[in-house]
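As practice, study what follows.
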Amino acid sequence: MKRVDDFRLKFGKQELVPIMVGGMGVDISTAELALETARLGGIGHISDAMVTDVSDRRFDTSFVKDKTKFYKYNIDNADKSGVKFDLGHVAEATRLHVGRTMEAKRGDGMVFVNCMEKLTMNAPADTLRVRLASSLDAGVDGITLSAGLHLGSFALMEDHPRFRDAKLGIIVSSVRALQLFLRKNARLNRLPDFVVIEGPLAGGHLGFGLDWAQYDLQTIVTEIAAWMKQENLDIPLIAAGGIFTGSDAVGFLENGAAAVQVATRFTVTDECGLPADTKQEYFKANEDDIEVNTVSPTGYPMRMLKSSPAIGSGIRPGCESYGYLLDGKGNCAYITAYNREIALHPDGKNISVMDKTCLCTHMRNFKCWTCGHYTYRLKDTSRRLDDGNYQMLSAEHVFKDYQFSVDHQIALPA
């Protein structure tokens, strides 16, 4: 009976344990989690979501405070078109976050940055270019392009000296999405180094509509692998979404995938950035506590715990401090929904916005509890303590359980 450790993900002459830990923002996939994954021979992610805020917390910078102060005059204004990010601050924060992480890296694995296209930041192309270039400047091993088609993202990096050196990949959920990406970037003569195929059971934002349950990850992997063989393309495919045991992973490794991306089981590890009480909410969740909703202003459906404090919150938009989801004209779906409720309740009291949420503020405060489909199984991976809480796990324990387990067994902590 095969184990994940019987396989290797190959990038040229380099071989890695075929386990990639997904990039969960905001700072849920911490530097500590990514570094531990790399030490163990896999690929860990940090996210550049809200990187200025992450820098403030990690390195005691004051990017958010300074931005809030600069735009304080606009807080009560419904028009957010004038609220911009200082690109120098974005670059500095990215270099700090990524650079310090890379300086601390040990082991034979790699550290990647997860870069979301949907973080439009009121200047989509300019801010994305800075985020990508600064990560490359800081020496990151690779970049995973997520939350969008990223049809122009390779072009934003083509003049960077590390464009053909760093490992660059894209997350897709269909053959068509991959075809569009490759067609758009054909002139650059630069294929992605890997493709993450994310299925409908993944956590957070999904690359599907509300008909997500009609799709199946293995079917999509098989379709993409067949199309790539037809096109004589040799790009490692990484299966993601709903891979809960080492045996689940082996099933994909035997059927077209070069590696797997996992995340849900790492949300309840010591190295994960979620607060301790929130990790217990994940442990205690039952299957009917999880939903796919449309409260994200990005337009993508998103899987989360129904009990997330972000759902139904009516806080004032935090764009002057954050504003990561403002489009190129300063618009955000939450601002529209919030202003609608203010018009209905001019006193501003007891505002509740059910259809959208202020994702920036709530993700920063760990109140939007995004999760994978199998979060309800986390209670089976640990031991319940006398006080009713569950024992926290280490990233090493979870990683090695994926790496060495057989027959869908899950190793409980000592």
